[in-house]
Amino acid sequence: MNESYSGGGASFQVLTLFAVINGELRAIFSEPMYYFKDVAGDWNKDGSRNHEIFEGENTVSISDAKTDGYYKLIVKSKKKAWSKSFHWDRNLLRYVVD
After folding, report:
1. Each residue's pLDDT tens digit, 16-71
2. CA-to-CA distance for 95 and 84, rounded, in angstroms?
3. Are 40 and 51 contacting, i.e. CB atoms less than 8 angstroms apart?
4. pTM of the predicted structure, to 2 decimals
5. Cα–chain-centroid distance for residue 37?
6. Each residue of 39-71: b (16+ CB within 10 Å) or e?
7. CB contact set of 86 (below 8 Å; sequence gap of 6+)
8. CA 35 to chain centre
9. For residues 40 and 9, what is the distance between their CA atoms, to the nearest angstrom?
10. Residue 13 CB contacts under 8 Å (≥ 6 apart), including other chains
11. How far is CA 32 from CA 14, 21, 53, 56, 76, in A?
12. Structural domain boundaries in the chain
């Protein structure tokens, strides 16, 4: 996915997992795995512009724990102390944030 800003932009790579449920192909999990943002900042006296660059990369792993027979999924940042876990929701038929 891409976003455009006046003076910058962003790009995102998303991991989407699919499953066949009741004969239908369904997206059951979707999370960003990589992003790059170039955000324009203040104008300089010479007419140029400052830019701030943001970049991040995540991994997804499978936990030993299960919910309704489905393993929990854990998304972790490769560079920061950040993680988010997901469990299976049998009503929605997809993974949701814990």
Report:
1. 999 999 999 999 999 999 999 999 888 899 988 888 999 999 999 999 999 999 99
2. 12
3. yes
4. 0.78
5. 14
6. eeeeeeeeeeeeeeeeebebeeeeeeeebeebb
7. 29, 31, 72, 73, 74, 75, 95, 96, 97, 98
8. 8
9. 9
10. 32, 33, 34, 35
11. 4, 23, 17, 10, 11
12. 2-97
Residue (of 13, 32, 7, 9) closest to 82 by Cα position: 32
The alpha carbons of the chain give a radius of gyration, in whole angstroms, of: 18
| pLDDT, tens digit (0-9, with 9 covering 90-100), for 61-97 | 999 999 999 999 999 999 999 999 999 999 999 999 9
Structure tokens at 59: 């991994």
Task: Tell me which amino acid residue 68 is.
Answer: D
Amino acid letter, 77:
S
User: Rounded CA gap, 81 and 76, in Å?
Assistant: 8
